[in-house]
Automatic annotation (TrEMBL):
Alphabetical list of Pfam families matching this protein: TetR_C_31 (PF17940), TetR_N (PF00440)
Species per Swiss-Prot/TrEMBL record: Streptomyces solicavernae
Entry keyword Transcription: yes
Database matches in InterPro entries: Homeodomain-like_sf, HTH-type_TetR-like_transc_reg, HTH_TetR, Tet_transcr_reg_TetR-rel_C_sf, TetR_C_31
Listed name of the protein: TetR/AcrR family transcriptional regulator
Keyword Cell membrane found: no
Gene3D superfamilies in alphabetical order: Tetracycline Repressor, domain 2 (1.10.357.10)
Domain of life where this protein originates: Bacteria
Domain spans labelled HTH tetR-type: 13-73
DNA-binding region: 36-55
UniProt keyword annotations, A-Z: DNA-binding, Transcription, Transcription regulation
Length: 190
């Protein structure tokens, strides 16, 4: 006996997910300013009218897609850092994970584009700022537990360094974690 056909609610959830996945791809490929309803619908394989049926607006959909992509990156980074044996090892682990990015790969381009878009979109800026603040607070708490003399400052510096590392890899693909780890280890020492 074949499975029953999906319900209208299940089809709606699937369309929303397809739109969000397509938006994440397009943000990194063409930038948020170039994502149109038509382009997004085409990539998702749906009619353009469904974009506005399922989301209040195209910018709202792009914000949700951007935050949906950025949240796991930062929460996984936080988990990796706090699970490490020491803050220095946690920072090294994060840098080594970022070494896998070229600065021109879809994930790097997505992150750069989301940061850039947040400068123009106050709602995205507020959401991304909150997410980054959570990341810095978790790093600062781990540094404080390890006896670091300036946990908040070191956490902010590490977050900025990680972002800058991704940006610089796009300009200098030969840049590796090994180039910055000695300095970062020193920064993380209590």
């Amino acid at each position: 006996m074949p499975p029953p056909p999906p319900t209208a609610a299940e089809r709606g959830i699937e369309v929303r997910q397809r739109l969000l996945r397509a938006a994440v791809e397009l943000i990194g490929e063409v930038g948020t300013q170039s994502v149109s309803t038509r382009l997004l619908a085409e990539r998702a394989g749906v009619r353009p009218g469904l974009v506005h049926y399922h989301f209040a607006s195209l910018p709202a959909l792009l914000r949700q897609a951007a935050m949906g992509a950025m949240r796991p990156l930062l929460t996984e980074g936080t988990a990796a850092f706090t699970a490490a044996d020491s803050p220095a090892e946690g920072a090294e682990l994060l840098l080594r994970q970022l070494d896998g990015y070229t600065g021109r790969d879809p994930q790097s381009l997505l992150a750069v584009e989301v940061y850039l878009s947040s400068a123009r979109d106050p709602e995205l800026r507020a959401a991304l700022s909150g997410l980054v603040a959570e990341f810095r607070e978790a790093i600062a708490a781990a540094l404080d537990s390890a006896g670091h003399p300036d946990p908040a400052g070191a956490a902010a510096t590490l977050a900025a360094l990680l972002d800058g590392f991704v940006l610089h890899k796009g300009l200098s693909p030969e840049l590796t974690a090994d180039d910055v780890i000695p300095t970062v280890r020193h920064l993380m020492q209590p």
